[in-house]
Amino acid sequence: MQQKDDNLKDIISHAKEYGFVFPSSEIYDGLAATYDYGQLGAELKNNIKSYWWKSMVQMHENIVGIDSAIFMHPSVWKASGHVDAFNDPLIDNKDSKKRYRADVLIEENIEKIRQKINKDVAKGLKRFGDDFDVEQFKATNPNVLRNQAKIDSIEDRMRTALNNEDLEGVYNLIIDLGIACPVSGTKNWTEVRQFNLMFSTELGSVSGDASKIYLRPETAQGIFVNFLNVQKTGRMKIPFGIAQIGKAFRNEIVARQFIFRMREFEQMEMQFFVRPGEEMKWYEYWKEQRMNWHKALGLGEKNYRLHDHIKLAHYANAAADIEFNFPMGFKELEGIHSRTDFDLKQHQELSGKKLQYFDTELNENYVPYVVETSVGLDRMFLSVLSSSFKNELLEDGKTRAVLSLPYALAPYKVAVMPLLKRDGLPEKAREVMNLLKFDMNCIYDEKDTAGKRYRRQDAIGTPFCVMIDHQTLEDETVTIRNRDTMKQDRVSIQELNTIIGEKVSFNSLFK
Ligand code: ATP
User: Fold this and answer.
1) Homologous superfamily of the 396-510 domain (CATH)
2) Engineering a disulfide at 469: which of 119, 359, 419, 459 sits with its beta carbon 3.0 to 4.6 angstroms away?
């Protein structure tokens, strides 16, 4: 645990040092849980967006993308249930004055017990090696069984309490589990209260309830209210999807852990409209698709796991999270929700406008069911950054900081460098740069020794460095150095575009 937290600190300072992420309004000591993306962060973020957008919109004939406004009619949030039910249960520790999400405290307690089971399994594996049958061990070992029963019982109590809005029940569970505040170490808790997460502001110059509007807490509603606009103008046939990337705002109770939980963040959401009764098939389909999309990045298959929701949101009949092994442990990266016809029906009711689809095959009108995939762009950013960041020990005993980013996501694909700042090498390097820059983001670097320049590019994740030397002037060849192997090959300038282009293209991820 200690090691992982330290690791997060290293990542935060690396991200700042190299222009990926800065605390927002830093000259005024920052604003809690808000961050700015710097010159390299913006590039990485854009590349993650492209990976998502291309895989959703470009790769699926039946998915289109929109860009709806952040401000929406206040009735939207009444209809969606956010005004009445977008609450988190909060609890304060009276000694440290720290505020926590009550459900998160309980989840963390469960995770600790799960770790105990994992430890027992690891011990068995160490002792018996390949012959060890993990499933059988889990089904028979008394320690594991006892711990699993504990988890089941806690989850059961939490589910019942949260679903029944029984805040006293949540409080009692925290007390019964003996959960202490990580800061003060005491169990001196306030009661559990509900807290609405939406930010509100006023539209125009008139104040008062009539002009109160909200900053959207999810991008999904912009898709729902445009369902018919898109379906009609795009002549979309069910099943079809509408995708959107955009900002969302939540007044999070506990906003810590860097860009994992922010008050202003970005979501990449897709609502998939299906025939009523077919939603479970599509729910399973999208769970698998989305997991594959994550794994294709090559950040390590072990780093992902699926977690079924204990408490279903007010709109869902099934929900699961894709969790990622962040520096703080496994946490939600993406949610896949079967939202039923809840949202469209609600909007239909409140707006008085029909939001139905005429299915020509069935010869029938209906309100479609919806399966949603919703991934946080900033959490994607953190998953990519944290799993790519390494301090690598080299053969000569030195270390290098390297970001082994998936090539397609790297801010710069190639760094072009003249070996020396004279003999016509910079001019030649500029020529090479001009050849490449139409197809990929390049950076030119002529300062310091070659070794130092390579290290700089390693630290920002640039997959290739192209060095222009005296031989280049004679035979139009350059050396190309790979970030991960640190090997250099000599290739002709003419081949550069193809060699690098193929490796850094998104195609390699999609295939
Ligand atoms: P959590 O349980 O962590 O609060 P959630 O279940 O409320 O998340 P959803 O409403 O399912 O989250 O939102 C979809 C996605 O949006 C999440 O999987 C996450 O990646 C992202 N997200 C949600 N809240 C935040 C936040 N405060 N900061 C950054 N990303 C967020």
Assistant:
1) Anticodon-binding domain (3.40.50.800)
2) 419
Q: What is the pLDDT of residue 1?
A: 33
Bridge partners of 479?
467, 490
Could you say which residues of the chain have pLDDT below 70?
A: 1-6, 205-210
Q: What is the pLDDT of residue 412?
A: 98
Handedness of CA 381, 383, 386, 390 (dihedral sign): negative
**Model pTM?**
0.86
What is the location of CATH 3.30.40.230 in the chain?
Answer: 87-194
87-194: CATH class: alpha beta
Domain 45-75+197-386 top-level CATH class: alpha beta
Domain with CATH 3.40.50.800 in the chain: 396-510
Look at residue 212 in the predicted model and tell me its pLDDT. 87
> Which atom belonging to ligand 1 lies closest to the Cα atom of 263?
27
Give the pLDDT of residue 6: 56
How far apart are the CA of 359 and the centre of ligand 1, in A?
A: 34
Which residue has its alpha carbon closest to ligand 1 atom 16? 376
So what's the pLDDT on residue 317? 86
- Going by the DSSP 8-state scheme, the letter that residue 367 receives in this structure is P
Indicate which atom in ligand 1 lies nearest the CA of residue 376: 20
Q: What is the pLDDT of residue 4?
A: 44
Instruction: Spell out a b/e string for 482-498, using b for 16 or more CB atoms within 10 Å of the CB, else e.
Output: ebeeeeeeebebeebee
Give nearest CA residue, ligand 1 atom 8. Answer: 332
Q: Pocket of ligand 1, candidates 332, 337, 380, 385: which has the most ligand atoms within 8 Å of its Cβ, to mutate?
A: 332
Residue nearest to atom 12 of ligand 1 (CA): 335
Residues with CB under 6 A from ligand 1: 250, 252, 261-262, 265, 267, 332-335, 374-376, 378-379
